[in-house]
Amino acid sequence: MRIHIATDHAGLDLSHHLITHLSAAGHEVIDHGPQIYDAFDDYPAFCINAAQATVDDRESGIEALGVVFGGSGNGEQIAANKVPGARAALVWNLSTARLAREHNDANVISIGAREHTIAAATSFIDAFVAEPFSDEERHTRRIRQLGEYERTGTIAGKNVDGR
């Protein structure tokens, strides 16, 4: 599987670890930055690029997921979710990592690098990558609704105010 990763200065140590760990597990890892430590770097572009590459790959039929992380993971998740087609989930334990894939078919995981040890964050990512989407109708229906809103600004029959 191809895995796109991005961080900011807060996650650079985790980034270096993940490149080695995921590559050793047989994944093709594409690092969207940063490459060097800069305490004043900004995560949005890195995370948006990783999310966009994930969406592009999946739309091209390439099996791909994204991994974004920074101090808390919150901003990184928000940035990734600005990309149409990205479904980034903030995870903080094994359960949320698995459910992000199983129920939400999340294609990007976000983690707070300052909130977890490298070992814990790695276990969340491994669980996320290994967990398949359940393909249950109720989950598929909800994901379709999110996509509809993303495209049209409303969800037909669901009393969502279109703008």
What does this 3D model show about the protein?
There is one protein chain. The protein is α/β, with parallel strands linked by helices. The protein is 46% helix and 15% strand. It has six helices and five strands; from the N terminus they run E-H-E-H-E-H-E-H-E-H-H. It has helices at 12-24, 43-59, 74-80, 94-102, 118-130, 137-152, and strands at 2-6, 28-31, 64-70, 88-90, 108-112. Strand 4, helix 4 (94-102) and strand 5 form a beta-alpha-beta unit. Helix 2 crosses helix 3 and helix 4 runs parallel beside helix 5 (118-130). The longest helix is centred in the first third of the chain and has 17 residues, at 43-59. The N and C termini lie far apart (38 Å).
Task: List the topology elements.
Blueprint lengths: L1 E5 L5 H13 L3 E4 L11 H17 L4 E7 L3 H7 L7 E3 L3 H9 L5 E5 L5 H13 L6 H16 L11
Parallel strand pairs: 1-2, 1-3, 3-5, 4-5
> How is the CATH topology of the largest domain named?
Ribose 5-phosphate Isomerase B, Chain: A
What is the count of β-strands? 5
Q: Report on the biggest sheet.
A: 5 strands, parallel
Q: What's the CATH C level of the largest domain?
A: Alpha Beta
Shape: globular
Features:
Ribose 5-phosphate Isomerase B, Chain: A, about 45% helix, globular, 6 helices, 2 domains, about 160 residues, alpha/beta
